[in-house]
Amino acid sequence: MDRTSVKIVVAGGFGTGKTTLVASVSEIPPLTTEEILTEASVGVDDLTGVEGKKTTTVALDFGRITISPDVVLYLFGTPGQDRFWFMWDELAQGAVGAIVLVDTRRLDSSFPAVDYFERRGIPFVTAVNRFFGECDYTEEEIRGALELDPRVPLVWCDARDRPSSKLALVTLVRHAMKRLTARAPA
Amino acid sequence: MTFDTWDGDDESAAGRFVPLYVLVNGRTAPRDSTLDLATQVVALPVDTRRLEPEYTAIVHRCSTWMSVAEIGAYLHLPLAITKVMVDVLVEQGYLGVGTPAQQNIIDLHLLDSVLAGLERL
Fold first, then answer.
1. Which of A69, A48, A147, A6 is CA-nearest to residue B106?
2. Which pTM does this prediction carry?
3. Is B13 domain-assigned?
4. What are A134-170's pLDDT values in tens digits?
5. Is B8 part of any domain?
6. A6 vs B114: CB contact, 8 Å cut-off?
7. How deeply is B25 buried, as exposed, middle or buried, from its count of CB atoms within 10 A (0-12, 13-18, 19+)?
8. Which residues constitute the domain of residue B89?
9. Per-residue pLDDT tens digits for B24-45
10. Does the structure's ipTM exceed the value 0.90?
11. CB contact B14 to A (< 8 Å)
12. Do A72 and B72 touch (CB under 8 A)?
C-alpha cells in the first residue's frame, strides 16, 4: 500500500524548546505517547534510592505535517533526559535527519545530541533558539563551543515562530539531500 | 504465611481490569520488525465483531491512515504494546500497512517532495 511515513527528530537538551518547535509547525497539537520501562531496562536508569519503583515512563512528544496525499512527515521530540538513549535509536533509525536545538545559556545541554548524530553519521542542523532573548555569542563562538563540523548548518530560530521553525526544517532537508548527492557515485 | 494482595493501584483512574500483557499474549515485540512508531496503518473493510474491545478501538481509530505513535497517544497505550497489537491486527487482515519510515535508503525523490511540502507550509 502506498502510504509513506517520513521522520525528522527534534533533539536538544532539556528545556531547549523541542515541543515548542514541533507545535509551531505541526498540523495537530503535539501528541504525547509513552513508553514504559520495566526492570529489564533499569540498568541504564539510576534508581538508587527508589528501589521500590518498578517502572518508569518516558514521554515522547510528536507532531505531523501532511506533505502530499501519500506522504506524512512526523516530527519526534527526543525525551528530555539523556539516559533514555535506547529511545533515540528507534527515533533516529530511518529518519531524514535531526534538528538539534541549542539554548545559548546552556550550550552544554546540547552536547550529547550533537555527539549522538555525529557519531552515527545522521544528517543534522543546529538551530540556535533565540526566544530566551538576545544572544551574546557569534556563530563562530557557538560553532567553536559545540565543536561543530564546518559542514553542519547553523540557523538562528525562534521555536515559537512557524516561518522560523519551517526554515530549520527546510535547511535540514536540503542538507540531507546534499549529503545524499555527494555520496552517490558519479 | 503471607499473601500477595492487590493494593488497588491500577493502570488508570478508570481501572484497567485486563493487564496489558494478557492482551498481547505476553509478546513484547512485533513479528514484523519493520513496524516502527511512524509506520501508518488503515482499517480494512472487514467485520471486527470477533475482536476484543481494545483491538476494536484500534481498528475504529484507523478509519483514516494513522501512525503507531498516534494510536498509542490517542488510546493511551504504551508504545511497545501498541506496536504488538497493531502487528497482530495487520497479520490477521484487519489493518493495511503503509511503507515504514524505517528504511536505510532515503531516496532523493522522496526528499524532494518533503522539501516542496515544507515550502508550502
1. A6
2. 0.86
3. no
4. 677 899 999 999 999 999 999 999 999 999 999 999 9
5. no
6. yes
7. exposed
8. 20-102
9. 777 777 777 678 899 999 999 9
10. no
11. no
12. no
